[in-house]
Amino acid sequence: MNILSVKDVYYKVDKLDIIKGISIDIKKDDCISIVGQSGSGKSTLLKLCADLIPITSGSIYYKEKCYTNYNPIELRKSISYCIQTPILFGNNVYDNLEFPFKIRNEKVDINRINYLLEKLNLDKSYLQKDIKTLSGGEKQRIAIIRNLLYIPEILLLDEITASLDKENTIIVENYIKELNESGVTVLWITHSDEQSKSIFNKRIFISQGEVIKVEEII
Ligand SMILES: Nc1ncnc2c1ncn2[C@@H]1O[C@H](COP(=O)(O)OP(=O)(O)O)[C@@H](O)[C@H]1O
Ligand SMILES: [Mg+2]
After folding, report:
1. Ligand 1 and 151: CB distance under 6 A
2. Fewer CB in a 10 Å sphere around the end CB: N or C, the chain?
3. Rama region for 105: left / alpha / beta (φ>0; ψ in -120 to 50; rest)
4. Does ligand 1 lie within 6 Å of residue 40's CB atom?
5. Which residues contact 184 (CB under 8 A, 6 or more apart)?
6. How far is CA 202 from CA 16, 21, 118, 185, 214, in A?
7. Residues of the chain with pLDDT > 90: what percent?
8. Ligand 1: does its nearest atom lie under 6 Å from the Cβ of 44?
9. Over the chain, what is the mean pLDDT?
10. What is the Cα gyration radius of the chain?
């Protein structure tokens, strides 16, 4: 069964085709890297898969049921999109990490927060830190944690290690691979050729709004 199936999807803005008839089938255990030049449509493709922008034509199926037949909130819980430029809000790190619990009306699971902070090479001393004092790489990791406090079925990652150093990039890659091995489907846009082969079983090449190649990585 395909967990996600993109069928002949177009995305147009005014009369400009940004995504031009993309079709992809994704299996539950896939860990896929998406590569292509800047402006080729990678982020737009993931936003369509995350149901954040409307498809112009074509359709996307999650577990073989068309997106239009889902409650958008249900899709949002199952399919998570982690954006390229992290946006933190409130005053401190805690404000950001309690948020996923608050919107679900659930008690804050501080053990889960601390577990993920340590997993991504941070620690609980960060919780009270003013977000204005964080480095780009720290902000990026806090945003990743905020996305992963509740583990989705499908994880869409948009160049999430762009502002991380080598050590932290590897830490994040290892954690994402661990999630994939525990059953999370991963699609990850990456700029780095080295990264695009690191933890993935497939690599999709995008050019000018089209898929030009799908490569199995052994
Ligand atoms: N809402 C929009 N309005 C106009 N142009 C857009 C819009 N969204 C994306 N684009 C254009 O579509 C192209 C693909 O963008 P994007 O998906 O962000 O590319 P990538 O992530 O591969 O760098 C770019 O040329 C971008 O400027
Ligand atoms: Mg992009």
Report:
1. no
2. C
3. left
4. yes
5. 151, 152, 153, 154, 155
6. 29, 20, 29, 12, 7
7. 92
8. yes
9. 95
10. 17
